[in-house]
Design brief:
The complex is a heterodimer of chains A (461) and B (356).
Chain A (H helix, E strand, L loop, with lengths): L1 H22 L5 H27 L5 H22 L1 H7 L2 H4 L1 H9 L3 H23 L5 H17 L5 H4 L8 H11 L7 H19 L4 H12 L2 H6 L6 H21 L2 H17 L6 H18 L3 H17 L2 H11 L9 H4 L8 H15 L1 H20 L6 H24 L7 H8 L2 H10 L12
Helix pairs in contact in A: 1-2, 1-3, 2-3, 2-11, 2-15, 7-11, 7-12, 8-10, 11-12, 11-14, 12-24, 14-15, 14-16, 14-24, 15-17, 16-17, 20-22, 20-23, 21-24, 22-24
Chain B lengths: L2 H13 L2 H23 L2 H20 L6 H27 L8 H9 L1 H13 L3 H4 L3 H19 L1 H13 L1 H34 L9 H4 L8 H11 L6 E3 L13 H8 L3 E3 L14 E5 L20 E7 L6 E4 L1 H6 L6 E6 L9
Parallel strand pairs in B: 1-2, 1-3
Antiparallel strand pairs in B: 3-6, 4-5, 4-6
Helix pairs in contact in B: 2-3, 3-8, 3-10, 4-8, 5-6, 8-10, 9-10
Classes of the chains: A mainly alpha (461), B alpha/beta (356).
């Protein structure tokens, strides 16, 4: 029964996400597979949390099933009503029949086949680790998995006030663990495999929209084999989930800046908003707001569907900024503190003494050079060379993405500097800074492999 | 000179042109550098070895060897050889040849045929076959990637010529391509070591109950895995919802002194502690942890003093090496508090007795 309920839970999450992907008109099969998982897990756990927050329904397997079944009925109903003409296309059995998928793969060249075989082997090995080993990672035992234990034992978060060190991060990973433990199984880490493979699928699809199939496959392989990201696929921390949601959110917003298509904005905003449901302390979601503002300017400049774009920008901004609000609201009620909002840092700084500002700037720079820069140095260096080549050849499609990353680096520096003003141990958490910087790697890889410099003239179709 | 002899001489000269000589030399150099990288374990040599692989690919792409049937067949055979070598390596690791006696058939056979088993063991050590097993998987993979790259260049001769011609024209693009390949190869080899060792560890511990796998994952009871066995013992000898007095958090008691970490193992029991290692027993405590401390630095052993005899109901201790638990007296513990003792004291309280 445990395995049946576990598989049923996975099915409900995926099905819910699939209905959302149809509503958002995601056409590419591989992209839809990945987006379904990410949106399903993100919004599914959010709805479960909202049922606890708004209606005081204790966390249980029953409440999880109820929330997911209601969500499925609602959104599939909307799909049937509003997307009828797309249903036949989305459910074309011919396209998703395993025999046709294998035949399609067989027709590809050896390079593609090699890339997919290596990716499949890596995926199987990650799944094996996530199925076999229990949660052992320090931070997971101290917080994320411990909260899942308490949720399963008590059905609520109330005892967290007394237990302490309980509300530092939002509930996404803890609810995924709790969803597993409610089914009496212990393999909570399977969700990290699901998120990892969904990441690779969507990343491939995003590359494929901009470049050839060979470069997309190789770029996805480069991402999958990045050691720091690969190891996090079997580590029960929030970092992988955060990277997935934040990076893909930013990438979809970059796509929106290219073509101003509404579904790219909505998917990007949702994913970026859901990144705050995973971790809230990093300020990178503000980049999303900046990209929305730039997109709005483009729309005005091109005089392209201004009213529609304005409405969508408002909706997108709401997704990005207010997804964290339910969690914020709960911790404000329970412990009267706002632990996660990056802007809360300004209330924590008591001493705005800038007499040693130059020394502090030097210390922060030294600290970041030691812990943060090595994480993405190679990728950043290659991206700089590629961008230089692009500019030389007058390819400007990746300039805005690259500038976004430069702004991110500035944000990391400024954020660390401000933290150093109030937290005494600011320079003793190097490992944490390194993990925060992982977010940049997929974005640099994206810029590298979507450069038009790689594509031969005859491939540009 | 007859024409066919002239052509044969020309062919020999073509084979001896600079690309071909360079290619041969670099192939030999690559093999040497890969071996040095393996023996030294140094990251510098690893990067050098990856760079020589890429230079080799480039030289090979520009040489005439790609059109030479003999060379192509040699590459195919070498690739198959290394793949078979890798499969044998993986098989030997899964077999765990240092622990073959776990198979009853092997045990029975060696009991009946002692001489045969002794001979096999002797050959194994004399021929130093163990050296093969102790190689890292990344070394074998690096040879496979290297030869595989040459094989790929053979198969896609015209396609690679087009791409190389385009990318070489732009120095920045060419540099990016080299750096991407160095990064990719380095990453592949780095993750291969870790994922392989974890997979073998999983295979060797597949018999364990799911949660007991915590111990081998954290390197056994001699290291971080001890906390799992220790917690099982404490859970068995304490009641839920009661309070345990644990040591302060510092380098000696990094696990059991970290309340936020240790509570995961003991929930729903409550944990209390003080920053002072000689602090009095809190009135709310129902138990006191006995912990030698497993980490470096400072003076191990906790608590630093025993509670009053009349406060002690029972004392259970556990041997870290044998995992054998027993009940002991207060006198025995008092003498040995600073030694390798792990256990739990159950307190009984009467009136206002603080048990200090």
């Amino acid at each position: 029964m445990s395995i049946v309920s576990y598989i049923f839970t996975l099915f409900l999450f995926f099905s819910f996400g699939y209905s959302l992907s149809i509503m958002l008109e995601v056409k590419h099969h591989i992209e839809r597979w990945g987006i379904s998982w990410l949106l399903g897990l993100g919004w599914g756990t959010m709805i479960w949390f909202l049922s606890y927050l708004l209606f005081n329904i204790p966390f249980s397997l029953g409440s999880l099933f109820t929330c997911l079944i209601v969500a499925n009925i609602t959104f599939w109903g909307l799909v049937i009503v509003t997307k009828r003409k797309f249903i036949r296309q989305f459910f074309s059995i011919r396209n998703i029949h395993p025999k046709n998928i294998i035949l399609y793969w067989y027709k590809q060249n050896n390079f593609i086949k090699t890339c997919t075989v290596i990716l499949a082997i890596l995926g199987i090995l990650v799944l094996l680790q996530d199925v076999f080993w229990p949660v052992t990672d320090w931070d997971a035992l101290a917080l994320y998995d411990f909260r899942a234990k308490v949720i399963v034992a008590t059905g609520s978060l109330q005892s967290g006030v007394q237990l302490g060190y309980f509300f530092q991060y939002p509930l996404f990973t803890s609810l995924l663990h709790a969803a597993t433990y409610f089914t009496s199984l212990g393999n909570a880490k399977i969700y990290y495999f699901i998120i990892f493979q969904a990441f690779l699928a969507v990343f491939y699809a995003c590359l494929r929209k901009k470049t050839t199939i060979e470069i997309s496959a190789f770029g996805t392989l480069v991402l999958a084999t990045c050691p720091l990201i690969f190891y996090h696929s079997f580590t029960a921390y929030t970092n992988l989930s955060y990277i997935v949601y934040a990076c893909l959110g930013i990438i979809y917003l970059w796509h929106w800046l290219d073509n101003l298509k509404p579904n790219n904005l909505l998917i990007g905003s949702m994913l970026l908003g859901l990144s705050t449901w995973v971790r809230m302390s990093e300020p990178f979601y503000y980049l999303g707001l900046l990209l929305l503002a730039i997109g709005m300017c483009f729309s005005f400049y091109k005089k392209y569907k201004i009213k529609q774009t304005l409405l969508l920008v408002i909706v997108g901004a709401c997704f990005i900024y207010f997804t964290k609000y339910p969690w914020n609201y709960l911790i404000t009620i329970l412990i009267s503190e706002n632990l996660g909002d990056p802007l809360a840092i300004f209330t924590l700084i008591k001493n705005w003494d800038f007499s040693n500002v130059f020394q502090r700037v030097y210390d922060v720079a030294e600290y970041l050079l030691k812990y943060s820069v090595p994480v993405f140095l190679w990728y950043g260096l290659i991206a700089v060379i590629i961008i230089a080549n692009d500019i030389k050849n007058k390819f400007f499609s990746n300039i805005i993405p690259f500038l976004t990353l430069l702004i991110t680096l500035v944000l990391i520096f400024v954020g660390t500097f401000l933290t150093s003003l109030w937290l005494e141990s600011w320079n003793r958490i190097g490992d944490s800074v390194a993990r925060m910087s992982l977010f940049l790697i997929p974005l640099f890889i994206y810029i590298i492999f979507t450069s038009k410099s790689w594509v031969l003239t005859k491939d540009k179709k | 000179m007859p024409n066919n002899k002239k052509e044969s001489l020309t062919n020999h000269l073509i084979l001896l042109n600079h690309w071909n000589i360079s290619t041969v030399l670099f192939i030999l150099l690559t093999g040497v550098i890969l071996t040095i990288a393996e023996l030294s374990g140094d990251i510098f040599f690893k990067i050098i070895s990856i760079t020589t692989i890429i230079i080799n690919w480039f030289l090979y792409a520009n040489s005439d060897f790609k059109t030479n049937k003999f060379v192509k067949n040699c590459i195919k055979i070498t690739l198959v050889f290394f793949i078979l070598l890798l499969m044998m390596y993986v098989f030997l690791h899964f077999l765990n040849i240092y622990n073959l006696y776990r198979f009853k058939e092997v045990e029975m056979f060696c009991t009946k045929h002692t001489d045969v088993c002794a001979t096999v063991t002797s050959i194994f050590f004399k021929l130093k076959i163990y050296r093969f097993i102790t190689l890292s998987i990344s070394l074998l993979l690096s040879f496979i990637l290297f030869i595989g790259g040459l094989y790929f260049l053979n198969t896609y001769n015209s396609l690679t010529k087009i791409y190389i011609k385009k990318y070489v024209k732009s120095p920045l693009l060419f540099l990016s391509l080299i750096l991407i390949f160095i990064l990719f190869l380095n990453n592949m080899l780095t993750i291969s070591d870790k994922i392989f060792s974890l997979t073998i560890k999983a295979w060797n511990n597949k018999h364990l109950h799911f949660y007991d796998r915590f111990v081998p994952y954290e390197s056994g009871i001699e290291h971080g895995g001890w906390i799992w066995e220790y917690a099982k013992f404490i859970n068995k000898n304490t009641n839920e919802h009661e309070t345990i007095f644990v040591p302060p958090q510092n380098d000696i008691w990094a696990q059991e002194g970290n309340i936020h970490y240790f509570r995961w193992f003991l929930y729903p029991r409550n944990l209390v502690q003080s920053i002072d290692v000689t602090a009095d027993i809190p009135l709310t405590a129902d138990y006191i942890l006995i912990s030698r401390g497993g980490w470096l630095g400072g003076k191990p052993g906790w608590p630093k003093k025993m509670p009053k005899v009349e406060c002690v109901e029972t004392i259970h201790i556990i041997n870290r090496k044998t995992l054998v638990a027993e009940t002991v007296s207060t006198v025995d513990i008092d003498k040995n508090l600073n030694q390798d003792i792990w256990g739990i004291i159950k307190l009984k309280r009467s009136g206002n007795n603080t048990c200090q």
